[in-house]
Specification:
The complex is a heterodimer.
Chain A lengths: L9 H5 L5 H11 L9 H13 L6 H22 L14 H27 L20 E2 L2 H17 L12 H15 L1 E3 H6 L4 H16 L3 E5 L6 E5 L11
Helix pairs in contact in A: 2-5, 3-4, 7-9
Chain B lengths: L4 H11 L6 H7 L5 H16 L5 E6 L2 E6 L4 H8 L9 H13 L2 E2 H8 L4 H9 L3 E6 L7 E5 L1 H6 L11 H14 L2
Antiparallel strand pairs in B: 1-2, 3-5, 4-5
Helix pairs in contact in B: 1-3, 5-6, 5-7
The chains are: A alpha+beta, B alpha+beta.
C-alpha cells in the first residue's frame, strides 16, 4: 500500500483504503508514531492534505472521510483550548479516536489472518463447495426467420379461430393506420409480445394487416424481432438507432 | 479395533454433505468406544496423506471432510473451467472480522467499527451464507443482529470460533507488522 505523490487524484487513491480509519492508520504507521500518543496537529495536517488532493467527489465516501476530519479538528481544538478545570477528569480528548483506531487495527490484523486462511483453504476443493460448471447462456436470442414468423402467425390464427367469438362488423383498416398504431405501441411499451399483440386483433383481416406491418417494419430495419426459443413467442423492439416518432404514411 | 471400522467411517465421511462430527459418527456406530473411532480416523487420515492419493481427510468446520490436495488445484480448476478463484473483498473480510469478534452485532455497530457504511458488504456476506441473521436487538429501530455461520468456519477451515486469533496473538501480529515496516 503505497502513497506516491500523485497526479491521479483523490478518487483513485482512496480505493486503496477501506475507509478513513484505514487512511489514518496508514498515516500514523508511516510516521512510526505510537497510536496511544498521536501528535494530533501533525496527523490532522497530513489527513487534510490527503483529502485536498481530490478532484472528484463521491458524496457517499466523502462524508465518512469528512466525519473523521471533523473529529480530528475537534480533538485538536480541545487540546488547544485552555481548560478551566485543568484536566481535572484526566481525560485525554484523543481517547475517542484512539479507542476506535485500536479496535480497527485489531480487525485489520484479523482480516489479514483470515485472508491467509482463505488462500490456503481455496486450494482444498470439496464437492459440496463446487460451483456449477459453466453453461451456455440459454437466453441468447436467435434471429427469427420469415418461416418462424409465419409459423407463429398461423398457430395463433388457428387458436383464434378455435375461440368462441364472432366478428359482428369488420372495421376498415389500412396498413398505414396499423403501422402507426403498432409503432405507437412499441414506443409506449418499448418491447411487445407479438403473440399478445395478436390476440387483441379483432378480425382476421386486421390480424393479417398487422402481420404485414410487422414484416414491413423488420424489412425497413425499424424493429428487431427476437424469438428466444423455437415455437416460443416473438418479442419485438424498436431499433434504437432509428429516429423515434416517425410519421408513417 | 474391528477391521471394518476404518472402511465404515470412510464411507460415512464420503457420503456426508457437511463436515462429519465425531459425535455423529459415535451415534451411528453405537457402542464403539470413542478412542477406537478416533484411532480409525487418524489411521484413515494417515492413509490419505500418502502422496499416492489425491484426496485428503481433514478436520475442518468442526468435522471430518474429504477434499482435494492443494497441489492438484490447477487440475481441478481445469475440470471446472475456473481460471481464478473468487476471493472475498477487503471490505468483506473486514466486515467478517468485525462480526466474528463482536457478535452478536448490528449493522450500525459494524459500520462504526470500520468507519464506513457496511451494508453492501453485509449483503454480500449474507448471500454467501458466511453470516446469518439471528434476531433483532431491543433498541430503537429494532435493528437486525448478525452472527457468523457454520459456513464461515468451513470456509476458513476453522473448527470453532476459538481458533480465531486471541488478543495476545493479534498483539503479536501487530508487533510484527510494525517491525516489518521499519
Amino acid at each position: 500500500m503505497a502513497l506516491e505523490p500523485s497526479t491521479e487524484g483523490y478518487q483513485v487513491k482512496l480505493e486503496i483504503f477501506e475507509g478513513p480509519l484505514d487512511l489514518l492508520l496508514f498515516l500514523i504507521r508511516k510516521k512510526k508514531i505510537d497510536i496511544h500518543d498521536i501528535p494530533i496537529a501533525q496527523i490532522t495536517r497530513d489527513y487534510l492534505e490527503y483529502l485536498e488532493r481530490k478532484d472528484r467527489i463521491n458524496l457517499d465516501r466523502e462524508a465518512e472521510f469528512l466525519f473523521i476530519a471533523s473529529l480530528l479538528i475537534y480533538i485538536k481544538s480541545q487540546l488547544l483550548l485552555p481548560r478551566e478545570t485543568e484536566t481535572a477528569e484526566g481525560e485525554d480528548p484523543r481517547r475517542i479516536l484512539v479507542d476506535r483506531l485500536v479496535e480497527y487495527q485489531k480487525i485489520k490484523a484479523v482480516s489479514s489472518v483470515l485472508r491467509d486462511r482463505e488462500e490456503e483453504q481455496l486450494l482444498h476443493w470439496r464437492r459440496t463447495f463446487l460451483p456449477p460448471l459453466p453453461e451456455e447462456d440459454p437466453l441468447e436470442g436467435m434471429d427469427v426467420s420469415l418461416f418462424n414468423l409465419a409459423e407463429a402467425f398461423f398457430l395463433i390464427m388457428k387458436r383464434k379461430s378455435a375461440g368462441d367469438f364472432r366478428v359482428i362488423k369488420g372495421r376498415e383498416v389500412t396498413i398505414g393506420e396499423k403501422m402507426t398504431e403498432l409503432l405507437g405501441l412499441l414506443e409506449r411499451e418499448s418491447v411487445i409480445d407479438y403473440k399478445d399483440y395478436f390476440e387483441t386483433q379483432e378480425s382476421l383481416e386486421e390480424a393479417l394487416i398487422s402481420f404485414f406491418c410487422l414484416l414491413e417494419l423488420i424489412k425497413s430495419f425499424r424493429v428487431i424481432a427476437v424469438q428466444e426459443e423455437l415455437f416460443q413467442t416473438i418479442k419485438v423492439w424498436l431499433r434504437k438507432d432509428f429516429p423515434r416518432n416517425p410519421d408513417y404514411e | 479395533m474391528s477391521d471394518q471400522l476404518k472402511p465404515i467411517i470412510e464411507a460415512l465421511v464420503f457420503l456426508s454433505q457437511d463436515p462429519l462430527t465425531l459425535d455423529k459418527i459415535q451415534s451411528i456406530l453405537e457402542g464403539t468406544p470413542p478412542e477406537e473411532i478416533q484411532a480409525a480416523l487418524d489411521a484413515l487420515s494417515a492413509d490419505y496423506a500418502s502422496p499416492e492419493r489425491g484426496i485428503s481427510l481433514r478436520l475442518a468446520g468442526g468435522g471430518y471432510v474429504f477434499s482435494t490436495k492443494p497441489e492438484h488445484d490447477g487440475w481441478v480448476r481445469r475440470l471446472l473451467m475456473i481460471e481464478r478463484k473468487s476471493k472475498l473483498s477487503a471490505a468483506g473480510l473486514e466486515t467478517l472480522s468485525a462480526i466474528a469478534y463482536h457478535q452478536p452485532v448490528t449493522q450500525a455497530e459494524i459500520s462504526a467499527i470500520r468507519g464506513v457504511d457496511s451494508s453492501g458488504a453485509l449483503r454480500t456476506l449474507l448471500d454467501k451464507k458466511l453470516i446469518k441473521i439471528v434476531g433483532r436487538k431491543k433498541a430503537p429501530g429494532n435493528p437486525l443482529v448478525y452472527r457468523t455461520s457454520e459456513r464461515f468456519l468451513q470456509y476458513f477451515g476453522l473448527n470453532s470460533l476459538d481458533e480465531l486469533p486471541s488478543t495476545e496473538e493479534i498483539a503479536r501480529i501487530l508487533q510484527e507488522d510494525a517491525e516489518s515496516e521499519t
